[in-house]
Amino acid sequence: MHTSNKLASKKLAEASLESLYRIFTVPEAPDSTLGQIDQSISQNLAGFLQQHIVAAERDLADIERDFADPHIPEQPTFVSDQIQFVLDKLVAQSVHISAPSFVGHMTSALPYFMLPLSRIMMALNQNLVKVETSKAFTPMERQVIGMVHHLIYQQNDDFYQRWMHDRGHALGSFCSGGTIANLTALWAARNNVLAPQGDFAGLGQDGLLAGMQHYGYKGMAVLVSERGHYSLGKAADILGIGRRSLIGIETDANNKIRTDLLARKCDELKQQNIKVMAIVGIVGTSETGNVDPLDAMADIAAERGIHFHVDSAWGGPTLFSDKYRSLLKGIERADSVTLDAHKQLYVPMGAGICVFRNPETLSSVEHHAEYIIRKGSKDLGSHTVEGSRPGMAILVHSGLQIIGRQGYELLIDQGIEKARAFADMIKANPDFELISEPELNILTYRYAPADVQQALLAAPVNLRKEVNELLNGLTKRLQKTQRGLGRSFVSRTRLNPVKYDRDPVIVFRAVLANPLTTLDILTDMLAEQQEIADSPAIQELTGQIRQRLRGTEHHRE
Amino acid sequence: MHTSNKLASKKLAEASLESLYRIFTVPEAPDSTLGQIDQSISQNLAGFLQQHIVAAERDLADIERDFADPHIPEQPTFVSDQIQFVLDKLVAQSVHISAPSFVGHMTSALPYFMLPLSRIMMALNQNLVKVETSKAFTPMERQVIGMVHHLIYQQNDDFYQRWMHDRGHALGSFCSGGTIANLTALWAARNNVLAPQGDFAGLGQDGLLAGMQHYGYKGMAVLVSERGHYSLGKAADILGIGRRSLIGIETDANNKIRTDLLARKCDELKQQNIKVMAIVGIVGTSETGNVDPLDAMADIAAERGIHFHVDSAWGGPTLFSDKYRSLLKGIERADSVTLDAHKQLYVPMGAGICVFRNPETLSSVEHHAEYIIRKGSKDLGSHTVEGSRPGMAILVHSGLQIIGRQGYELLIDQGIEKARAFADMIKANPDFELISEPELNILTYRYAPADVQQALLAAPVNLRKEVNELLNGLTKRLQKTQRGLGRSFVSRTRLNPVKYDRDPVIVFRAVLANPLTTLDILTDMLAEQQEIADSPAIQELTGQIRQRLRGTEHHRE
After folding, report:
1. How many CB contacts within 8 angstroms connect chain A with chain B?
2. Average pLDDT of A318-326?
3. Helix-strand-coil percent breakdown of chain A, rounded to 5?
4. How far apart are CA B301 and CA B333, in angstroms?
5. What is the pLDDT of residue B422?
6. What was the pLDDT predicted at B375?
């Protein structure tokens, strides 16, 4: 009995093992649920998303009920059952990122070829940490880094011939996104500031404390405009200098860093014996898409021997445009530059790049191990924050080839021009107020009828603040209502416009990078906002605001 | 003339824009190059790889010539041309990671369903940094983190009910891989050690220097066995404590940390006023797959109030196995645990997880911003090193459902048992020497005929060192030759076996995680190594080694 039980259980295990092998060796049948989805995505992506993503918003707490079980199921689930679950519970309740009427995200529609190319990438499953697990993917990624380097720094052919595939150096670091790219740049900058000297083996070896003691610094700092991306604060935390050492410099009325204040702060810190390890310029602030005066910043950095980093995660691809490239003048003087491929290079999520003008800069973070990224190897892992990484560079490589400089130029130009047209549309509409003019393809605005706008500018400080606070509530509500309806989407953020003496002002934020977004779609979107604003609930709020403004006028009379 | 030129160029731009729209709106035709590849991968992945990956090795310098141009092409390239290039130059020269005879990598074959599922992920292109760009993917990822948490910590249902979807907390952090997972764990540990107190706002705000001064520490340290993964050294660099503060503790003959030395070092450092911010245990060292004595390490950490992190990037999934789970006893006492999904959860590259026993631990790295990951939101980005991230968790979720606990158990069990069988095969072969016994599914060995092994053990120290050095050259050459032939692949690494009094010994490293690797394949692989070893070139080297060993015997006579 016992033996036969054992035998039965052995047979069962063998049967299970057999069926387990099948999932590794037998493809999904074309007429299976998964096979059908696969074809439907391949043949009509927009249709698939339209059909399966439910437009109307479901409450998050409600969605969570479908993902409440912390237990890994004991028994295998049929592929078809799981896929049905994925369709009904996950796809249905995902966000329609690529919809042309969803202009609040920094990701947009993807070129069709990206999908089958991604399949090649997934099927090969290379690991870019080392040549041994990536082979040709390593030189390919080095070329992609080289191409982005050339886009920015335009060095001559000899330079790339010398450095692009050099085993001891890296012109940049390919990573999962702008956050890691910024971290990489500041990591390299920090380690170069506290470089080996005499009996100090360098920060990388001996640590921050020993480094600061060796060089006699009282502190370290990174300077960026108050519109700097939140990843910089996180980097300051991770790198050990602390968030308070990331110093936000005030911006002007156009959300650009005030270089007079930047220079002054540099000198102040120097007097306090606090070492500025990097100045960061922004090309396309996340909130308003503005570009810092890079040339002037480069001057300030150069005069003081400070690492100049440019975060062009969003706006870097503007360099493709003959017409608008000059907005970025000075970027070629940066010591390091971040650029996100999953934003305006139209690559799927998970691809960022940081390039360095000088091939030596990134050497300050170089590292090796025994079984991997050995010294003298060409393994890319010796200069990256991440270890194992997928071959996403294949998507960037193909994007650059298939779309080409001119193709990207068209994408950039039409985005900027669409943003200007949308800004004109808003300015022409008396019920809306443009808060930031688009410099690239991002703009912000809010619902504020002309009479309210006028009264607000004339109102005393306290009333203005109060009304702006009321308008903020209204904007928030309007944005959420529109999102909930599921037809269109703008994001929202909070700014401190100079116009209102830096009162916090919540705004709609439109990002116009999706080539499929037409002016008609934007007209409809604005009309929908108007319609929501005209609803009794919102009109009651607007009425209260008007009354509040009038009430004070009475007082003042 | 001028006007008509302008008009012509406008028309041209419109035509280009039109063709550009097409890549966003018109799917690849099924009979296009890309369409055909897509089908071929879907229907017969192994066949596709076999057909397109060239077996014989091409020189890397030669491959680099295909990726030498740093210029982004001005004009668009036809999709079909680029895809042909990808096939000929990239796919052909990639590494056949999933081949059953390639047992040197930590990535293996993928279940078929992962490919169409990846397409769904890519098509949706969600960004997990915030709910607004990921919706249901956020609770789904939280569930995946919860499931892995439960796998390790087995808390009760109330616990997960309370914490899994809590807006103020995260039970873990999903990321691109084990390196970031380890960095996340050590980041949290570091910030908890130098937590806010009195007028010190915490390391995250005030920085490492202020923190160490506030708490009066002379230094910080992380302790791990000398077999610790290189990502820990990198983390020590990035986090600012410096690589020298990552202290490697000697291992015993089985590559396990010597807990006596660990405890002693902790106490030594305390006396020197150096704060140990974490002790790291390893489950499956990269080189030998051994498991540290976690329970004893947990005791040491608990007695001293030190954060105990376990790096089970490789071996974590052993917990699925009823038979082998006990090897990991004590892991449930860890404060944080790293586990790579792209290793033994059989998910494509780019999926790692770090979980924390206590829901409060990760709060030390919590961060917020204005337009994103706002305070009180459930945005996952508030507790991650990375910012924008793809929805890879969908692949882990589906893997856990479709394969189930029992399925993963089978995968784990067969890997361990195959490794033992292969070890027996090596021990039975007089020409090979097993260097490390497989505890999980990794083992190391080298070519060293029985007489050489014997003479080596009897040899005086200097000769032994010299011969081991010669054998190292031989092993390296043998491994490279086999890799170059392209039929099979083992990796190599360098160990310091106690058997040889810690002489550096280069070894073959076999990782037996691919369910499609049979014992026959391993037999063939060993036979191929034997064949290479029997070649005149290698036999000459072996002859020299024998002579060298005999020469000294003469001397000693």
Report:
1. 548
2. 98
3. 55, 10, 35
4. 10
5. 98
6. 83
Does any CB of chain B come closer than 8 Å to the CB of residue A390? yes
Mean pLDDT across B104-121? 93
Residue B411 contacts A where some CB pair is shorter than 8 Å: yes
Distance CA A144, CA A401 (A): 10
Selected from 1.20.1250.20, 3.40.980.10, 1.10.260.40, 3.90.1150.10, the CATH number assigned to the domain covering B408-556 reads 3.90.1150.10
From B225, B326, B215, select the one nearest B274 (Cα to Cα).
B215
Residues 6+ apart with CB under 8 A from A28: A34, A35, A38, A79, B42, B112, B113, B116
ipTM: 0.95
Extract the tokens encoding A321.
Answer: 């445009």
Contacts of B515 in chain A (CB under 8 A): 20-21, 24
Alpha-carbon torsion (B465, B467, B471, B473), positive or negative: positive
Residue A81: DSSP 8-state: H
List the single residue in B69, B133, B387 with the smallest CB-CB distance to A179.
B387
List the single residue in A with minimal CA-CA distance to B518: A21
A144-154+171-194+213-405, which class in CATH? alpha beta
Residue with tokens 């009094």: B501
List % helix, strand, coil for chain B (3-state, nearest 5): 55, 10, 35
Question: In this structure, are residues A232 and A241 in contact, taking their beta carbons and an 8 Å threshold?
Answer: no
- Of A7, A22, A184, the C-alpha closest to B113 is A22
pLDDT digit string (tens) for B176-190?
A: 999 999 999 999 999
d(CA B336, CA B331): 9
Interface contact A62, partner B, CB < 8 A: no
- Which residue do the tokens 């006023």 mark? B273
Q: Do domains A144-154+171-194+213-405 and A408-556 have the same CATH topology?
A: no
So what's the pLDDT on residue B252?
96
Q: How confident is the model at residue A1 (pLDDT cuts 50, 70, 90)?
A: very low
Instruction: Give the pLDDT band (50/70/90) at residue A3.
Output: low
- The alpha-carbon gap from B554 to the nearest alpha carbon of chain A, in Å, equals 36
Query: Tokens in use for B287?
Result: 């080189």
pTM as predicted: 0.96
Nearest CA to B280 out of B349, B348, B181 is that of B181
pLDDT in tens, A165-218: 999 999 999 999 999 999 999 999 999 999 999 999 999 999 999 999 999 999
Amino acid occupying residue B64: E
What is the side-by-side order of every strand in the sheet holding A432-436? A432-436, A442-447, A505-511, A491-495
Rounded to an integer, what distance in angstroms lies between the CA atom of residue B372 and that of residue B127? 12
| CATH of region B126-391, choose from 3.30.70.60, 3.40.140.10, 3.40.640.10, 3.10.450.70 | 3.40.640.10
d(CA A387, nearest CA chain B) in Å: 5
Indicate if the alpha-carbon torsion angle A83, A86, A92, A98 is positive or negative.
Answer: negative
Is B64–A139 a contact, with Cβ atoms under 8 angstroms apart? yes
User: With 80 as the cut, is the pLDDT of residue A373 above it?
Assistant: no
Query: Within a 10 A sphere around the Cβ of B254, how many other Cβ atoms?
Result: 13
Q: Are strands B442-447 and B432-436 parallel, antiparallel or unpaired?
A: antiparallel
pLDDT at B229 over 90: yes
The domain segmentation of chain B, as residue ranges, is 2-94, 126-391, 408-556
For residue B384, the SS3 value is: coil
- The interaxial angle of helices B230-238 and A178-193, nearest 10 deg, is 70
